[in-house]
Prior knowledge:
Blueprint: E1 7-10, H1 14-23, E2 27-30, H2 36-42, E3 49-52, E4 62-65, E5 68-72, H3 77-81, H4 84-89, H5 91-97, H6 103-108, H7 111-117, H8 124-131, E6 134-139, E7 142-147, H9 148-151, E8 152-154, E9 157-158, E10 165-172, E11 177-184, E12 191-202, E13 205-214, E14 221-222, H10 224-230, H11 237-246, H12 264-286
Helix pairs in contact: 5-8, 10-11, 11-12
Amino acid sequence: MYPAQFEYQQAESVPEALDALSNNPEAELIAGGHSLLPTMKSGLADPEMLVDIGEIDDLHGIEHRDGSTRIGAMTSYADVADDDTLREEATIFAETAGEIGDVQVRNRGTVGGNIAHADPASDLPGAVLAADATMTVQGPDGERTVGADDFFQGMFATAVGENEILTAVEVPHEGTTGAYAKKPNPASGYALVGVAARLTMDGDTVENARLGANGVMDHGTRLTEAEDAIEGEPLSADTIDAAGDTAGSDLDEYMVMEDQQASAEFRLQLLGVYTERALEAAGERAGVLSV
Length: 291
């Protein structure tokens, strides 16, 4: 199926893109195009104008700062996955980017497009939550920041407002170790369930834990009960089992996704399994656990 006719504008700057959005209520931003173009071809999206932000220099690149890394919204998954500093200082973010799709997808898809689209089966929302990243959003009234816990608000819904653009993601260099584990859909590679874990260790004791999941609810979500199960405890097979057992226990069961790919019951079972796998991998990476 071919998409309907639309106008096209190549924006050279963020203000130009914002003006285009303000002047065209039915306009859509296009970044890598992996999310928008398929929905246009299927008829699910019918924008009157596409505003291409791919050539805006300010939206590209990775900048390492004291204690954090700023990732421009148009930075590709491949660039994030291959960045040595991110792999060392923000392991789960780089590792998760490397798990998205295949080589072609990682070379074309963008971090900002993935996060702003907020597909519940996308990989990055869980990593954003686990890493406690901060999103920078720019609009007609200026620039503002949104924390990870406030960003994802529903299926394909985020804190990015009308006529605003997600311009960057800042990932703190915190945590001793981390890992991402997912059960991929065998056809698409999207996550049936994915869990990202970031742990701050004091010896073999978990001082702080952040666990983010995707593919379970209609948006990325924290696994706070599983976090509580391991914080203040030595990271061991027993505490990991406890985290797996409690993963999702604080979620409203009627809100757990159910479709032709997996029932809600199966997704909750997978959530426990992949919580354990993410924690096991993080523990092994930190050298405090042999599984």
